[in-house]
Specification:
single chain, alpha/beta, three-stranded mixed sheet, 1 helix, globular
Length: 126
């Protein structure tokens, strides 16, 4: 029980929850404009959430929110990637060498079920 309370307290601190916390629609502050190879993480969403790229392309995710996000996919996938925490304005890049469709999610805001129903997206590699 004590471990669970510590874990909840840590997550609340990490997410910046509290009486003076911004709402999800007020979390911006780091300019991010999606491109053909860049996905923006803003307002608890990936934009675009679905991206099609050529084999060998590097995709960069940029955090445009004021809270931490992550980018990762399920272990056992044909191509596995995970970012760790990405702070406000931070980026993470991955080069896709394997053709296929790869679902990914934010481990903080996207693990509401299987498949993820929160903050998630798909990369299709041709």
């Amino acid at each position: 029980m004590a471990k669970r309370a510590i874990m909840v307290a840590a997550m609340l601190a990490l997410l910046g929850c509290g009486s003076n916390s911004p709402t999800y629609t007020q979390m911006g502050g780091n300019a991010c404009t999606p491109t053909a190879n860049e996905v923006c993480m803003m307002n608890l969403a990936f934009n675009p959430s679905n991206l099609s790229i050529a084999h060998g392309t590097t995709v960069t995710w940029k955090n445009g929110d004021a809270v931490n996000h992550t980018v990762g996919n399920a272990s056992g996938s044909a191509e596995t990637f995970t970012s760790g925490f990405i702070g406000a304005g931070g980026t993470y890049s991955h080069t896709f060498a394997t053709p296929g469709t790869f679902e990914y999610y934010c481990a903080i805001h996207g693990m509401d079920g299987s498949p993820p129903t929160g903050m998630h997206g798909t990369i299709t590699v041709n």
